[in-house]
Specification:
The structure holds 2 protein chains of 2 kinds. Chain A is 73% helix and 0% strand. Chain A contains 12 helices and no strands. Chain A is mostly helical. In chain A, α5 packs across α6 and α7 runs antiparallel to α8. By secondary structure, chain B is mainly α. Chain B is 77% helix and 0% strand. In chain B, α5 crosses α7 and α10 packs antiparallel against α13. Chain B is globular. Chains A and B meet through α1, α3, α4, α5 and α6 of A and α2, α4, α5, α6 and α7 of B.
Amino acid sequence: MAYDAQTVRRLVARGKHWDKVFVIIGLLSLMVGVLTLAVLLAGLIHDGAGRLNLDFFSNFPSRRAERAGILSALVGSSLVMLVTALAAIPLGIAAGVYLEEYARKNWLTEIIEINVTNLAGVPSIIYGLLALGLFVYAFDFGQSILSAGLTLALLILPVIIVATREAIRAIPGTIREGAYALGATRWQTVRDHVVPYSTGGILTGVIIGLARAIGETAPVITIGALTFIAFLPEAPVGGEFPFISFEWLSSPFTVMPIQMFNWLSRPQAAFQENAAAAGMVLVVLTLLMNALAIWLRLRYRKRIKW
Amino acid sequence: MSSVSSQVITAEATPEPQANRFERRAWRHWGERLIEAVLFLAAFSAVAVTVAIVAILVTESLAFFEHVPLSEFLTDTQWTIMFADKHYGVLPLLAGTLTTTGVALSLAVPVGTVSAIYLSEFAGHRTREIVKPTLELLAGIPTVVFGYFALLMVTPALQYFMPDLPGFNMLGAGLVMGVMIIPYVSSVAEDAMRAVPMHMREGSYAMGATRLQTAIKVVMPAATSGIVAAYILGISRAIGETMVVAVAAGQQPNFTFDPRESGATITAFIVQVALGDLPHGSLEYQSIFAVGLVLVLMTLFFNVVGHLVRKRFREAY
């Protein structure tokens, strides 16, 4: 078959016509996500803005919707996040450093790597079941802030490990060679060069992980967080000797997403307004954290040129 | 410059006695080993967590299957563990899980794939820099908020078109779940397509193919293994998603594949039981581990299938 130039040109023109059609379809597809985000935010604001005042932040949950607030949930979320951060950050960074800087290429390393990848894909509710069997009953931590914090720490561990590894991998080998040439040991190299230089990437991973943890509902419900908490756990820092108390670790608690879920599952419209308001707080928190992470990543990507 | 530094070195290197230096090095060596061991334990915790998950799911499930025969679990079409007349058939929960997952994928796969093609082959640098972070933000929104969206915004909108739709239905929940997993599908698929070497596209353009023809007939086949990985990720997310279905799909286990009805998924059932006061060691308590094991096996199954498909279609350039 022989085409003359005219025919070929016509064929290409027709193909280009489809290009334009696809551009429109592609933009529409992208809009699905972006528009959903916009509608979701607008809806939350429309439904919940009326409830969002100072009392909402300083009141305990109540049987009367208009007097209910998120104080205990906010405090609960903060304390759970504290435990999560304290457990997950050192563990995740240590694991990442080991896999990048120390691990030899052998079957053991491979098993660890496969496990990290797989854990990232395990549904979050399964972590809840693990924690229910292990932390709540086997270790007897009870349905406490400690159990919840550790559960979420395990959940975000893969995120931090992967972020740490990527950040470390971006550091050129010459930096390490320079340190070794000056007589530094491996640990000195890691402590004084590798980890400090990868702080940006690690921080991004930590923030993304914590943003995910703060919004996680399923695993925390599974370990049996209560939905109606009208008191605060004992303060971690007190005025009397020994100033620091660990009572709060074993306290029952509720967290923001569970409070929202609780209001959401009630039929009365007044409570659903509360749910919307709690949702706004939650969305703003996670959006801020994620935006901070994205900004950090862009900033570090621009600044560092080896 | 060099004379100054050599002076400093000679000044520092002279007086220290030999034995002392060896001692310090020995100590240092020991410290290095200790640190390596600690770091290794941290990395090994990933293995420990996996082992713990499997051990707990299996032991509690074994206890469950002492009371409930496996045949009933797999064939009975009713799951009424919370009622007086107890039936232990996992099929309704499986049906709920598969139905919501199916609805979610029927939205997320086409939209995610088209988005990925657009971002990888058509969009300029600027568009990509704006859209990708936005999609990431979408992925970061807590799932319980999406539950709110499904129950109080999407379902009423659907009821406008389908007046018979019940307030709790799998369609609304599945669609919202689909939107939720679009970012996962599109970003992994896009990465795969962008990894296709430029010279393949150039070859195609040289033959007179347009962008779209190149994208569909050259780039996508070359990136099949990565695109399949994106779909598998989407399926895993949808199967394990909890809060959207727990809030918006209703919590009645219902053996149906009709998305317009209400139904309970495996995850929604676990939440439902966990919300009640469950005595440790009771049959209800053990049942959530048994269905949890089913959930893990399903995820595993799809991941193995995905792995095989990826291997079959892997292209190396």
